[in-house]
Design goal:
With 205 residues, this protein is mainly α. 54% of the residues lie in helices and 5% in strands. It is built from eleven helices and three strands; from the N terminus they run H-H-H-H-H-H-H-H-H-E-E-E-H-H. A three-stranded mixed β-sheet has the order 2-1-3. The two termini are 30 Å apart.
Amino acid sequence: MDIWPVVHSERKALAADLQSVDAQQWATTSLCSDWTVRDVLAHMTATASMTPAAFFPRLAGCGFNFGKVQAKGIAAALGSSPADTLARFTAVTDAKGRPPGPADTMLGETLVHAEDIRRPLGLTHQYPTAALVQAADFFKGSNLIIGTKRRIAGLRLRATDTEWSAGAGPEVSGPMLDLLMAMTGRTAATASLTGDGVETLRSRP
């Protein structure tokens, strides 16, 4: 699947959902507990604005500390107000910029971070099932940055709303979206999952 039409569509859907968010809601802690929902949106803007050529000089300038690269990107994309943050994100919804690495990273980034924002705000969204599956298939074999391959090792993940499963061992079952969120480290998503492997998955950072 060509990821970019999905990425662009999902960014636009998120921007539309956030039009009615008030100032207090923008300060809500996201599922990325160190970031507010506004921080996450700024991070998405910074990532969409990145190029492989620009990434390595920025990384070197931050002492090869990836966390500092992210923090600087967020600070630059926040703007002067939540409305400015949203406007900056809206301006890059059709962008194809990304750091170096597999393109599927951007699909996962868009889906997971959109849900990092929506869940704490009580917003629901119907994500394309094929996109969720493609993102999960990418993450299950990768330890890049978020360590999904290690997190789900020795477990069998099985979706209950589509034909998808991965791994072997004690089972973790539930909706595809919740499996994707849990396997990428969002422990809040494990609340809707069932099976003998849930506690193991929940205990892994």
